[in-house]
Amino acid sequence: MHIIDGKSLAQGIRSHIADEVEILSRERNIVPGLAVILVGDDPASHAYVTMKAKACKEVGYYSIVHEMPDTISQDEIIGTIKMMNDNPRIDGILVQLPLPSHIDTDAILEVIDPAKDVDGFHPYNVGRIVTKLDAFASCTPQGGDADV
Length: 148
Fold this sequence. Notes:
Rossmann fold; 6 helices; three-stranded parallel sheet; alpha/beta; 49% helix; globular
Protein backbone atom coordinates (compact mmCIF):
# COMPACT_ATOMS: atom_id res chain seq x y z
CA MET A 1 0.00 0.00 0.00
CA HIS A 2 1.21 3.47 -0.89
CA ILE A 3 0.19 6.43 1.27
CA ILE A 4 -0.32 9.70 -0.56
CA ASP A 5 0.55 12.92 1.25
CA GLY A 6 -2.23 15.14 -0.11
CA LYS A 7 -0.94 18.36 1.46
CA SER A 8 2.53 17.85 0.06
CA LEU A 9 1.16 16.91 -3.36
CA ALA A 10 -1.09 19.99 -3.42
CA GLN A 11 1.77 22.25 -2.39
CA GLY A 12 3.93 20.85 -5.17
CA ILE A 13 1.19 21.50 -7.72
CA ARG A 14 0.68 25.07 -6.45
CA SER A 15 4.43 25.67 -6.58
CA HIS A 16 4.59 24.42 -10.17
CA ILE A 17 1.64 26.64 -11.16
CA ALA A 18 3.29 29.65 -9.48
CA ASP A 19 6.44 29.01 -11.50
CA GLU A 20 4.42 28.79 -14.73
CA VAL A 21 2.51 31.98 -13.90
CA GLU A 22 5.77 33.80 -13.21
CA ILE A 23 7.15 32.72 -16.61
CA LEU A 24 3.91 33.67 -18.38
CA SER A 25 3.96 37.06 -16.70
CA ARG A 26 7.62 37.72 -17.44
CA GLU A 27 7.69 36.46 -21.02
CA ARG A 28 4.23 37.43 -22.29
CA ASN A 29 2.99 39.98 -19.73
CA ILE A 30 -0.02 37.78 -18.97
CA VAL A 31 -1.39 37.17 -15.48
CA PRO A 32 -4.27 34.66 -15.31
CA GLY A 33 -7.41 36.12 -13.77
CA LEU A 34 -10.32 34.57 -11.89
CA ALA A 35 -13.57 36.34 -11.02
CA VAL A 36 -16.04 34.91 -8.51
CA ILE A 37 -19.63 35.90 -7.88
CA LEU A 38 -20.75 35.23 -4.33
CA VAL A 39 -24.39 35.95 -3.53
CA GLY A 40 -25.65 35.93 0.04
CA ASP A 41 -24.01 34.97 3.30
CA ASP A 42 -23.81 31.17 3.31
CA PRO A 43 -20.83 30.33 5.56
CA ALA A 44 -19.77 27.29 3.49
CA SER A 45 -19.80 29.35 0.29
CA HIS A 46 -17.78 32.11 1.92
CA ALA A 47 -15.23 29.58 3.19
CA TYR A 48 -14.90 28.02 -0.27
CA VAL A 49 -14.47 31.39 -1.98
CA THR A 50 -11.94 32.49 0.64
CA MET A 51 -9.89 29.34 -0.03
CA LYS A 52 -10.00 30.01 -3.78
CA ALA A 53 -8.86 33.63 -3.31
CA LYS A 54 -6.01 32.46 -1.09
CA ALA A 55 -4.94 29.85 -3.66
CA CYS A 56 -5.04 32.46 -6.44
CA LYS A 57 -2.83 34.78 -4.42
CA GLU A 58 -0.41 31.96 -3.66
CA VAL A 59 0.11 31.08 -7.33
CA GLY A 60 0.13 34.67 -8.60
CA TYR A 61 -3.28 34.86 -10.27
CA TYR A 62 -5.25 38.07 -10.42
CA SER A 63 -8.54 37.45 -8.64
CA ILE A 64 -11.62 39.39 -7.70
CA VAL A 65 -14.68 38.42 -5.68
CA HIS A 66 -17.98 40.17 -6.40
CA GLU A 67 -19.89 39.84 -3.13
CA MET A 68 -23.59 40.55 -3.55
CA PRO A 69 -26.49 40.62 -1.11
CA ASP A 70 -29.05 37.82 -1.35
CA THR A 71 -31.61 40.47 -2.33
CA ILE A 72 -29.80 41.31 -5.58
CA SER A 73 -31.78 41.04 -8.80
CA GLN A 74 -31.07 38.51 -11.50
CA ASP A 75 -30.47 41.35 -13.98
CA GLU A 76 -27.77 42.82 -11.72
CA ILE A 77 -25.95 39.48 -11.55
CA ILE A 78 -26.23 39.10 -15.33
CA GLY A 79 -24.81 42.59 -15.78
CA THR A 80 -21.82 41.71 -13.63
CA ILE A 81 -21.21 38.49 -15.56
CA LYS A 82 -21.38 40.33 -18.89
CA MET A 83 -18.87 42.86 -17.56
CA MET A 84 -16.52 40.00 -16.61
CA ASN A 85 -17.06 38.29 -19.98
CA ASP A 86 -15.79 41.48 -21.63
CA ASN A 87 -12.89 42.03 -19.21
CA PRO A 88 -9.60 40.86 -20.80
CA ARG A 89 -8.00 40.49 -17.33
CA ILE A 90 -10.53 37.78 -16.46
CA ASP A 91 -9.84 34.30 -17.86
CA GLY A 92 -12.25 32.39 -15.66
CA ILE A 93 -15.61 33.09 -14.03
CA LEU A 94 -17.06 31.09 -11.17
CA VAL A 95 -20.58 31.64 -9.82
CA GLN A 96 -20.71 30.18 -6.33
CA LEU A 97 -23.79 28.00 -5.95
CA PRO A 98 -26.39 27.76 -4.63
CA LEU A 99 -28.01 31.04 -5.59
CA PRO A 100 -31.03 32.47 -3.76
CA SER A 101 -34.39 30.96 -4.77
CA HIS A 102 -35.54 34.07 -6.69
CA ILE A 103 -32.59 33.70 -9.10
CA ASP A 104 -32.80 31.36 -12.11
CA THR A 105 -29.51 29.49 -11.80
CA ASP A 106 -29.68 28.09 -15.34
CA ALA A 107 -30.17 31.56 -16.82
CA ILE A 108 -27.19 32.86 -14.83
CA LEU A 109 -24.90 30.02 -15.90
CA GLU A 110 -25.89 30.45 -19.56
CA VAL A 111 -24.66 34.06 -19.53
CA ILE A 112 -21.08 33.05 -18.71
CA ASP A 113 -18.80 32.98 -21.75
CA PRO A 114 -18.19 29.23 -22.28
CA ALA A 115 -14.46 29.96 -22.68
CA LYS A 116 -14.43 31.48 -19.17
CA ASP A 117 -16.66 28.88 -17.50
CA VAL A 118 -14.48 27.56 -14.67
CA ASP A 119 -17.03 25.03 -13.40
CA GLY A 120 -17.96 23.68 -16.83
CA PHE A 121 -21.68 24.27 -16.13
CA HIS A 122 -22.50 26.23 -19.30
CA PRO A 123 -24.70 24.02 -21.55
CA TYR A 124 -22.15 24.32 -24.37
CA ASN A 125 -19.40 22.90 -22.16
CA VAL A 126 -21.64 20.22 -20.64
CA GLY A 127 -22.61 19.06 -24.13
CA ARG A 128 -19.03 18.90 -25.34
CA ILE A 129 -17.95 17.01 -22.21
CA VAL A 130 -20.81 14.50 -22.42
CA THR A 131 -20.21 13.84 -26.11
CA LYS A 132 -16.47 13.56 -25.47
CA LEU A 133 -15.61 16.44 -27.79
CA ASP A 134 -12.64 18.65 -27.01
CA ALA A 135 -13.66 20.94 -24.14
CA PHE A 136 -12.42 22.49 -20.96
CA ALA A 137 -13.45 20.17 -18.17
CA SER A 138 -13.30 21.34 -14.60
CA CYS A 139 -11.83 19.09 -11.95
CA THR A 140 -15.23 17.65 -10.91
CA PRO A 141 -16.09 15.98 -14.24
CA GLN A 142 -12.46 15.00 -14.72
CA GLY A 143 -12.50 13.23 -11.36
CA GLY A 144 -15.57 11.23 -12.34
CA ASP A 145 -14.39 10.12 -15.77
CA ALA A 146 -10.81 9.42 -16.70
CA ASP A 147 -11.73 9.88 -20.39
CA VAL A 148 -12.68 13.57 -20.03
